[in-house]
Amino acid sequence: MKHPILSGKFRLLRFLAIWIAMGLIFYVTMSNLTPANKKFLFVDILGQNMIMAGLMIGLWYPIKFMSWENQKLPMLILNHVLLYAVFASTWVFLIHLVLKLVFPVSEINDYISNAIAYKIPFSFFAYIVFVISVYLLKYYNSYIEKKEIESKLSQSIKEAELTLLRNQMNPHFIFNSLNSISSLTIIDPEKAHDMIIKLSDFLRYTVGYGQLNKVPLQKEMDMCEAYLEIEKIRFGNKISVELQIDPESLEVEVPSMLLQTLFENAIKHGIYNSLKPEVILFKTKIENDRLELIMENTFDSSGKNHAVGTKTGLKNIKERLRLNYKNLAIFETQTIDEKFVVWINIPLNS
User: Per the structure, how many domains does the chain have?
Assistant: First the structure.
C-alpha cells in the first residue's frame, strides 16, 4: 500500500495546509484564553503543528505494520505506548529547540514551563486520532481491493461460463452439415460445393465474432443468413424464412451466436421432424429503450414426427441472458396450436 500522504504532490500540500489551518485556529483560540506572549504563542503553535505533521508522515510506516492481525493485543498496546512515547518526546524536544533558537532562553523559559501542560494531552489526542485514521484507511483500502478481486473473479467465471455455453452451440450443427455435405458429394456435387462455401462463411464468423461477448445485431443477421443458406440446401422447399427487421435494431448489440441458436432451435424442432413445409418468422423492434426479439416457427405435432427434445439450446439462451443482463432480460416461450414462439426482451444500454 502506497503512503497515503506522499503518494501525490497535492495530497502532501493538502495535508500541510490542514495543519497550518488548524494551527491558526488554535492560535486565535489560545490567544484569547491565555495571557501568554503573542509572539511566543504564534511561533510555538505554528512550529509544533508543522513538526507534528512531519513526524506523523513518518509514523505511518511503523503503524502500517502494527495491527491485531499480526500481533497479540497486549503486544500491540505496548508497541503503541512505546511509539507514542518516542513520538511525544521527540515532538516536545524539537518545538522547544525551535523556541530557544528563535527567542532568548531567559525570555522563553517561563513560557515553555507553562506550555508543557497542554502539549502532552494534545500530543496524545493527535496520536490517537492519527492511528485511528491510519487503521480506517488501511481497512478501507483492503475492502476496496477485496471487492476488486471479487469483481475480477466474478467476471472471469462469467466469461468462462459464456465460453462454455457458446461452445455447446456449434458442434452438432457442424457435424450435421458435414454429414449433409458427405451425402451431397454423391447425389449433387454442385450443391455440396455451395454448402462448403456457405459453411466456410459461417465458420469465419464464429472465429471472428463468435468469440466476442456481444456484437451488433446486423453482424448476427449476416451470420444467420449464411447459416440459413446451409439449411436451405439441406431441407430445400421444406423451409421458409420470413424476416421483419426494424432497421433501428440492427445497431443494437446482442450476445453473439444468440440468433443462430434461435434459428437452429426452430429448424431442429420445427422442420427437421416435419413431413410438410414449415415457416420460420423472425421479428425485431425497439420500444421503451428495449429490444424485442420474436422467433416463431410452425411444426408438425402429429404423432411420431414430433420430437420434444431436451431444449438444451433454449436453456443455454436463457442462461446467457442471465449472465449478460442479470434480471433485466425477459425470456419466455409459448406454444400456440402448431406454432412455437420464443420472446426475448433486453435493455438497449446494458
Answer: 2
**How crowded is the C-beta side of 182, counted as CA atoms within 13 Å?**
6
pLDDT per position as a tens digit, 226-245: 888 888 887 888 888 999 99
- Cell numbers for 337, please give them: 396450436
Let me know if residue 161 belongs to a domain: no
Q: Where are the alpha helices (DSSP H) in the chain?
A: 9-33, 38-64, 73-102, 105-169, 171-187, 189-208, 217-235, 258-266, 312-325
If one counts every other C-beta atom within 10 angstroms of the C-beta of residue 122, the result is 16
pLDDT of residue 201: 80
> What's the rounded Cα separation, in Å, for the pair 138 and 62?
13
Domain for residue 97, yes or no? yes
List, for the chain, all residue ranges whose pLDDT scores fall below the cut of 50.
303, 305
Q: Which of 301, 302, 305 is nearest to 336 (CA)?
A: 301
Cα distances from 247 to residues 63, 284, 343, in angstroms, run 63, 9, 19
C-beta of residue 265 within 8 angstroms of C-beta of residue 313: yes
Question: Where in the sequence is the domain holding 25, given as residue range(s)?
Answer: 9-154
In this structure, are 204 and 229 located in the same domain? yes
**Residue 167: its pLDDT value, please?**
55
Q: CATH number, domain at 193?
A: 3.30.565.10
Same domain, 90 and 221: no
